[in-house]
Amino acid sequence: MPTFTAPDGTELAYHLRGTGAPVVVLPGGPMRASAYLGDLGGLSAHRQLVLLDLRGTGDSAVPVDPGTYRCDRLVDDVEALRVRLGLERLDLLAHSAGGSLAMLYAARYPERVARLALITATPWALGMPATTEDRLAAARLREGEPWFAGAFPAFAEWLEGGGDFDPAFIPFFYGRWDATAAAHADREGEQFNDEAAELFGSEGAYDPPATRAALAALTSPVLVHAGEVDGGPRPDLARRAAGVFRVAEVAVQPGAGHYPWVDDPEWFVRRVAAFLG
C-alpha cells in the first residue's frame, strides 16, 4: 500500500486498481474510506484508479489538528498526491461529497486538472445543496418498490429533522435494491470517520461565489454524472451545477441512484471511460 506525507506531516495512503494512465479518485461520505468504491464497476479495466484514503479514514493516519478535516484544507492533500505521483496534470474523478473537494481543488489549481468527472456529486462548494424537497421527490419515484411503504414515512421524518437514520432508508440510495446493492451497503458501517464528517463542511469550508467564478474560467472538460432516481443531486441540480463550468457535459444514468457503478456497471463504465479517454 503506497503512502505519502501531507504538508502538515500526516501520513496518507492510497490504493491502486488496474493499469494504464492514472485517474485520481476522491471518495465521498463525507470522509468515508475509499474501499466502498471498489474498482468502480470495472473502470479499472480502462484506467488505473488511484483511490485516496482521506486523512483519518481507511489506511491514512489521523491528523494532529482535527481542523484539517475541513473540505478546503483537504485541497493540500490532493495536491500533495499529484506531486507524489509525478503528474503534471491529473484526471480527477470524485464521488458524492468528494465532488466538493474536487471542485475546490480545480478552483485553486486549474492548471493541474486535465479532466474532471463529478459522480453523483452534491455541489455544496457551489452553494447548491440538495434540498429536503429534492430528496423526497426522488424517493417518491420508488413508490412501486415493495419496501417503500415501510420506509418512506420514517425517511421523510428523518429528512425533516426528526428521528435517527434507519438502515431501512438505505434502498433509497440505490437505483436497484437487490443482493448486489445490499452486499455493497453491508460494508458501509466501518468506513466512516464521524468526527471528520462533522467538520468537513464546517464554517469557512466553502466560498461559493469565489468558487463559481474560478470554475467559470476552467478550460478543462468536466463530466457531471447524475443518477436518474438519486436525490442528491437530482438530475436538475446536476444540470444547474454543470452550467457553472465553461466546458461541461451532463450524463443522467437511467435507473441509477447514488452509486451508479453498483446499479449498472456496464452503463457507468462505458460512459465514464468514454469521457476520460
Unreliable stretches (pLDDT < 50, length at least 5) are none
Q: What percent of residues adopt helix (DSSP H or I)?
A: 25-40%
* Major sheet size, sense and barrel closure: 8 strands, mixed
Shape: globular
Q: Write down the secondary-structure element order.
A: EEEEHEHEHHHHHEHEHH
The neighbouring-strand order within the major sheet is 1-2-4-3-5-6-7-8
Could you say which structural class the secondary elements and strand pairing correspond to? alpha/beta
Query: Gap between N and C termini, in Å?
Result: 27 Å
How many distinct beta strands? 8
Number of domains: 1
Q: Roughly what is the average pLDDT, rounded to an integer?
A: 96
CATH architecture: 3-Layer(aba) Sandwich
Strand content: 15-25%
Q: At the fourth CATH level, what is the homologous superfamily?
A: Alpha/Beta hydrolase fold, catalytic domain
CATH topology tier name: Rossmann fold
CATH class: Alpha Beta
Describe the structure.
This protein is of the alpha/beta class and 277 residues long. It has one domain (3-276): 3-Layer(aba) Sandwich (Rossmann fold), CATH 3.40.50. Helices cover 34% and strands 17% of the residues. The chain has an eight-stranded mixed β-sheet with strand order 1-2-4-3-5-6-7-8, with helices on both faces. α3 packs antiparallel against α4 (148-159). The protein is globular. The two termini are 27 Å apart.
